[in-house]
Specification:
1 helix, metal ion binding, eight-stranded mixed beta sheet, Jelly Rolls, mainly beta, seven-stranded antiparallel beta sheet, metal-binding, globular, 47% strand
Length: 302
């Protein structure tokens, strides 16, 4: 299989969202449509309760899916369809907002003191923007982990590895979401569907995400104004966006193990009109959504 090469590398940047939650934004607004069908990835990682307890009080979504993956800590959630509960370490919440949902996500005091998790936003195509909302709460025990040769470990939220399929299925953008750990010096190779967008986000360690060892072979954003000594190895809080050509990705761990999230999905190739928590195709659709929210007509399905 021909391995894909890196298109661009980004460094996540600190920002504050919700009622005062400190996060690192791996990619977002300014990168549309590079990551199509993915809109945003936020990394919340802190041991300071004041930086995560304010949470994300009640707010609307329409036209997207939000995917929350918790590594450490607890997040209490509720929504306008009556779903409620708590997700903890290793759990995933996959919510399709569709025609409209109002929800809240409120981190709780962490048993370890650490809060660490991620939220992706995935776009919905125009003909499914107004579909009925749906919600999937996937517990860590229901997420399979496969152990490949040489000690490589892969947790499969969505997609298939070595014939093992993840629990999140029948999603419109045909996504994969993997949590991959590769021992030092070993190589993880994984097929990617033709034309699908492929992205990796490094959690820990360092690795080479294609076969090149030239740090100037691809664009690197956020590395500094005059970084003439930059390295081609990618470390924590780094986003790797792959080129669309190639049938697989190949990741080689450096001198120590590397752990990363891998996501892929089918691009929509549609216009994006985005304001706050609502993503549509036109500004007129955005205007309608916010008018309906203001007038109490936002929720179409209960």
């Amino acid at each position: 299989m021909t391995a894909r090469r890196i298109s661009r590398v980004f460094k996540s940047r600190p920002t504050v969202e919700g009622a005062g939650v400190h996060i690192k934004r791996a990619f977002g607004y300014s990168q549309v449509p590079l990551f199509d069908p993915f809109l945003m990835l936020d990394d919340f990682h802190t041991a300071n309760p004041a930086e995560y307890l304010p949470g994300f009080p009640w707010h609307p979504h329409r036209g997207i899916e939000t995917i929350t993956y918790v590594l450490e800590g607890l997040v209490e959630h509720g929504d306008s369809m009556g779903n409620k509960g708590v997700i903890g370490a290793g759990d995933v919440q996959w919510m399709t907002a569709g025609s409209g949902i109002i929800h809240q996500e409120m981190p709780q005091p962490s048993p370890t003191g650490m809060m660490w998790g991620f939220q992706f936003w995935a776009n919905l195509p125009a003909d499914r923007k107004m579909m009925d909302p749906r919600y999937r709460d996937v517990k860590a025990a229901d997420i399979p982990e496969v152990v490949l040769d040489r000690g490589i470990r892969v947790k499969i939220v969505s997609g298939t590895v070595n014939g093992v399929q993840g629990p999140v299925r029948d999603i419109i953008i045909d996504p994969e979401m993997l949590d991959v750990s590769v021992p030092a010096g070993e190589v993880f190779t994984h097929p990617v569907k033709e034309g699908h967008t492929a992205v990796a986000y490094v959690l820990d360690g360092e690795g080479y995400f294609d076969d090149r060892r030239d740090p100037f072979a691809f664009e690197m954003t956020g590395s500094g104004w005059m970084d003439v000594t930059r390295r081609c190895v990618c470390g924590p809080e780094t986003v790797i966006l792959y080129e669309r050509d190639g049938a697989a990705v190949a990741v080689t761990a450096g001198d120590r193990p590397v752990r990363f999230l891998f996501i892929s999905g089918k691009p929509l190739n549609e216009p994006v009109a985005w304001y706050g928590p609502i993503v549509m195709n036109t500004n007129e659709e955005l205007r309608t959504a916010f008018e309906e929210y203001e007038k109490g007509r936002f929720i179409k399905h209960r």
